[in-house]
Design goal:
mainly alpha; Growth Hormone, Chain: A
Length: 389
Amino acid sequence: MRAGIVSLIFGYVLSQFYRAFLAVLSPVLAADLHLPVKVLASASGWWFLSFALMQLPVGWALDRIGPRLTTAALLAVGALGAAVFATATGAGGVNTAMLLIGVGCAPVLMASYYIFARLYSPVVFGTLAGLVIGIGSLGNLAASLPLSWAVEGIGWRGTLWVLAAVTLATAAAILLLVRDPERVTGAQKGSLLDLLRMPALWPILIMMAACYAPAAGLRGLWAGPWFADVHGADAARIGEVTLIMGLAMVAGNFAYGPLDRLLGTRKWLVFGGNAMVLACLLALWAAPAAKGWQPLVLLAAIGFFGASFPMVMAHGRAFLPPHLVGRGVTLINLFGIGAAGVLQMVTGRLHAATPPTPPEAPYAALFLFYAVTTGIGLLVYLSSKDRTD
């Protein structure tokens, strides 16, 4: 099973890469395909939305079919999406490709979480969840400076063909190496509606919807155009900026994992971290054109403190019955990824609707928007019930 877990984690490396690579590709796609940032925001949103909409069928498939076939089959669809991207000639091709890639990436993290929830103690679920995301975030790093080097070396189309081959090979490895946990047997039955009837889950679902979107949106797209338009950054500089934010996100994922056991609380760990994200967003809104170290440090801080995803997942996992683990973790993931996709499209329209006079004005509007959604999530989360297993 260890080899199977490794293959799933590598699949998640690819998932992290695909959700973030448009920040670096945006200048070359704008030049080659004449795609404005609004279109790229929509394409990024399609990745998140297709990923999110797949969570419910993925949850059913994890419980009924198992993680091996579910993940291998869908990741092969993601390989097809990368091939479509490599041949894209306009917005339609890019959007279709991102939709297919989102479908392909949908099961990889949840398959790991399903296996952890079935085979390991709930006490270590948060640590294992954070470990997978921390390692998987290497894909986030690869979608920064290394991606810019690859694009310079073999072009963006050549890079996408390589990614299609790597994604297909990973799907084959998962099919060969992953072993499904033993099925839950007995008279217990349940459905998604049973989960939605649990009052304890709702504040956690709302927090998940609010906490993931700012870091995902900024790292996945907006950091690139913001530094290009406001700070005059070229592709290499954008690669450096996104690399630093990606490193901060990796560090944050590793830091959150064991802290619930150290501090004896999940709720207040998540609340405190996202309160820091809110403070950083407000600071960026107040000074979106600040020079020097400030914008980069604030982006890195959002990446670090915004890495609460596995801890929010662990908080929700603590309330799930064993026979609904697959559907439960994918429901929580649906709220996180789905909200990120919707907000990515909303921010694209907000950016387009805000006059660039001065150039930083559209980005100030984005930072304020993310700050408001984070604040709403924190207020709702105050009503959540703490649980640390």
